[in-house]
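Table S5 (text form). Sequence records supplied for joint modeling of the two-component complex.
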Amino acid sequence: MKKILLLSVLCVFLKFVSAQTSDSDDDKNVVITKSTQAYKFVKGDAGHPVQVKEETDKVYTCNNYRTDIQVAEFYNDIESVDDVTIYVNDSKKNGIVPKYEYYSSDGIFYSDAHVCYFSLPLLKKGSTSEVIFKKTTVDPRYFTSIYFMDEQPVAEQEIKITVPEWMKIEIKEFNFAKYNIKKNVSADGDATVYTYTMQNLPAYSNEHDAPGPTYIMPHLLVLCKSAQPKDDKYVYFNTLKEQYDWYKGLVVQIGNDENFIKEKTEEIVKGLTNDEDKVKKIYQWVQDNIRYIAFENGIAGFKPEKAQEVLRKKYGDCKGMANLLTVMLRSVNLDARRCWIGTKHIAYDYSTPSLSVDNHMICAWMNKGKLVFLDATEKYIGFGETAERIQGRQTLIENGNQYMLERVPTATYQQNTAKESRTFTVEGNNLKGHVIQTWKGENKEWLLSALNSIKQDKQENALKQYLTEGKQNFEISNLKIDNLSNYNADLKVEYDVLWKDVLSSFDKDTYLDVDNRRNYENFKIDSVKRKLPYWFDFKNHMIFETEIQLPAGKVAGTLPDKLIIKQPGYSFTVSYTSAPGKIIYTSEIILNQTELKPEDFRQWNKDIEQLTNYYNQQIVLTQKT
Amino acid sequence: MRNAILTITLLLSVVHIVNAQSKDAEKYRKESEQMRQTVWAWDKPQFKVRDIPQQYANASKVIIAHHTELTADSKSKFAFYGLGFGPKKELTLTEVTREMVKVNDKSAVTDFSEFSFTQFERTSGFFSTDKTTSYVGVRVIKPNGTIKEINADDVILTKDEAAEKKAKIAVPDLQPGDIIDYFIATEQNLTNDISNKPYRVLLFDDAPILSLSFHGQLGKKYAIQYRSYNGAPELQVNKNEDKDIIIDLEKTNIPPFETALWVAPGLQLPFIRMNISLGYKGMGSKWMDTQKPGEVSKNTDSDEFIDDKASSLSVDYYNNYWMKAAKDQFDAIESDAKKRAKNAGIAYKDLSDEDKAAQLYYTFRFTKLLNFDINALKAKIDIGNARFNGFAFLLFCTFKASGLKPAILVSPERDGLRMAEIMSAGDLTTAAYLPESKKFFTIRSVYDIPFSIPDNIEGLTGTKSFTFDHPAMIMGMKKMMGLTNIDPGPDVPTTTSDKNAHIENLQLSLTADKNNLTVRRSTTLRGFYKVEEQRELVLYEDLYEAERKAFNEDKSLLDDLEDSKKGKKYVDEVRSAFAEARKKQKDAFVKEAKDWFEQDVTELKEYKTDNLGIRHTAPDFVYSSSFNLSGLVKKAGNNLIVEIGKIQGTPLVIKQEQRKRDIDVYMPYARSIEYNIQLDIPDGYTAEGVTALNKKVENETGYFSAEASATDKTVTIKLKKHYLHNFEPAKNWDKIIAFTDAANDWVSAKLLFKKK
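The corresponding structure-token record, covering 1381 residues in total, follows.
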């Protein structure tokens, strides 16, 4: 689905061009000393009766040493770049010619995104360069957000939004708390002018595994409600109902060929009588047979492709897959609904009707009044399992002329349990035995995605490489894999292991290091450099159990005390227990939340250190006396 | 689009000549349709095959058929060129490569899921416009035999401008078990282009190929040179009744080739090369590297291409050295070198030729590469990352201008091609050297030193040596292009494993909490192991200052700027930029240590470069630091286990699938990794298991040895892993495995510190 947050795209783009030009990553060398952003709703033409004119003017100052920075502005079918004015040391004669290009981004096959970019020199310490962009957005629905931060720190900024009395908007402020941002509302004739002023905004942090910009950056969400520039009134997203109606209107225009879809669907569910079995079969058929290829050009960013086209092409984007799944389920009399949803990347919900609220589409099966959410873009997740990115997210669900608002249930960490059970006997300095590993939910999806990206004749080798962690002394044989292509069951592997030289004998004693997985060992977060929360990919649950039959005549020495760490978001429990003739080692890691806040980094690091130290304890086998 | 295919087959180079014709979308669509009809109608049995041999049933993909059809036509016209009329030869080169592939799994489907290509490209010259148009056809053959062809509407344009159109296609309805049948056709319209168009047919792929074929038809005015490499079948080249040149090649059942470790493709893998050009015999043809119309040359004598190289260097010599004004720049280097020698208390005139050359080399580097330029501040700070071509010709001229007797070694690179099999002057590399002392000089990075032999020419024999005549008068092209003397070149020595070394001197002790190791580290890098770490760890400012001091110049760069009228204006900027670079150096040291030891590194301090390794008199790159290293210490009751084997990180592993090998082994160079470890025994403990650490596996290809001993206070361990040669015959493969496995086994080595 369309509506990539342009700011996050910009981050990636600038990082890319910066890397290419080896530009400095020091955010203090170049500062935006003055920035003004002016937005004005104006009357347009018959085709686009209301337009938004934008003029941004940024003055860049070089603080320390001369350099070049990359400047980029995005545009598309709705937003145009009308003019760019560039001053270098007050001179317009600087030879800079902006480039205008199609913008290709990972994961999107084709969109209408374009970028205007150029390299802007700052000639020496103390010199300034200035860039003025003029843009027009021809449909207010697409004018949704104004961000205050930039690639460089901003010393002084003014943002002005001029709203004529014939235009109705609502402005929502986000993430203002940490910054001294002043707001003033004044009148300019019949227009209302909203002015935001601020000083000393830092450059935005571009950290990995962090919440999206809507959670972090100070910004405005502009909700365009309605307009009456002349006689006719145009209602945009006055309430969520209007947004739903707009989406629904696009759905009506799709033109699905239900009979064609029905024929295929009946073939897929042939012989099945149970509704749930049918849904499972159809869902996995779409997961397996429809490739994810995203088209986001113009209205195709919002309107799903015809179901029969997706079926013919065997590819589609999230909308195309959700629509196909919906039509397929309906064709065999199952109650399916298209659902619009903003993934976890977006901070908003539908209390603020806007095209910025959602970025994804899924399907829901209404099973006797209970919703089961199906996201066919998750290629290897099971029926009833949901990915972290949509868990707990509010979703706008088709319901005839009305709509339903529900949240996707939040799964527990147990949805994603990865378990490894080993039984070993001791042979000299080696351990020999059998291992069973199972993966559920997103752990299963991760592994299946990795395996399926590998050539099938190399898959077993790759899996062995993964299981042995590339260690030659961990020899695997008799590998059996279950449910490689049944995502509704746990992925399971079983194998025999000869783990060479894992025991060390010194004098009469033997030392043994049981855990070579050492999950989350040294998984520390740089609490000095990192400013933003850390987001784990999904809630996690890892169980590792090993039972070792001791050789006759050997007993285990004093075993390490159990380690129990319990924090609100996670727990680590690791223990050794002794039983007649054997010892049992168990490690259980639970991440029941996916966010680690900066204020918790120190505790996390301390706990990780304890866990690592626990892993660094070996057990001693001594002669029975 | 499969980039690999493009790289392999679309090697017709684009040259700038005349054609001014635009095509609208409709015309393109019609042409495209016509091309598809033609290609799909090919009556070639290999494209009718649908069954895959059982042995490849589990392959990710199988190339059922791969065929290239190349046609080249020309016609003469008369054209007005502004100053008058002249002959105009219009060329049309059309290449169609069609491939039919059985895709058996999701990975293969992903490979063929999307195509992108440049539909149309036009480049304009002064008198000319070149035009290249590409057409693509894709169809999917389902297991039941039904054929689904891609709809032209599925092609989308990502660039739609008059001079260039770029397009993408997402292939519909492609699933595991299907066959994808696609082609890429490229039509080039050129004018007056007599340049050589190199063309290559590779007879290996990571997927099995059931049929690979090539057919070419070149108009009678064309000429061709060709050669088969490394067991590739012979190209069949004949002429038809119209005297057109007909080229054919067919090879069936090519098994997959998957080994990527230590392979020299040009010496080991089968392929065919062709040079195709429009023949020309006329005014100046002797000097224009042209062939006669209709000329067919199999296994062309490599001397022809060596002569091309000689001619090209003759022109360089004439323009850049023989001409007095050009030579001045080299004279200036000598003059500067003499001054710098004097300043450093060296009697330049008393130096041996090779020491003079070294002095010139350092002067060249300091004044041409390391010289400061405020207008290129970032580029200068990043100069350490720059990669140069060796500067053979410039160093040759610098030495010659100083009265030395240098020469230029000319040869294919060590892992490139055999000298007798070159087919282009571009196959040859060069290096400046002094024939009398056989000392080599190259600058591929600012860290290179005189007398070091680059790895790409190590061990070469049968080389050529170029020198240049320097007559007082040069009249005419013939004289100018014939200045080069070609003589037999030297046999190039090969370095030994101790010359390319990574040596870790480590003083290890336990941290106070006995959970980790405290490491005092001094690292010495030698030879080819140096440059990548120098790029990471050495600062431009340090590099500049080290050389400045070596030249005995008093003032630092910053002081020098401070004292100059111009420099004073921007010295603060330079200071800030240098300070920022220095701030990042700590992160570089941490990263380097983490990457090397593959363990967490904390508390890094006392990090510094001790010797930059940029002078032949002190060639080792030495750096040091201290830090805490995790992951090696385990507690075991009252005792401690030190997993000392892990200090190696993960040594190179010859993977299971790489263990059978029947082709020779081309490694980059002989090399060694050594650890000299002093491990403190903590008070109150004794060390056990020291004797068991000793190990040695040695054979003619190399060795791994671990020698351990202990006193009451310290355990001393010396680890050595040496690859003795840069080449081993296939029969020695098991011997390489023997000592690399021994190094891997030693990763499990442990010591016990037992509580007294």
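Note: The radius of gyration of chain A is 29 Å.
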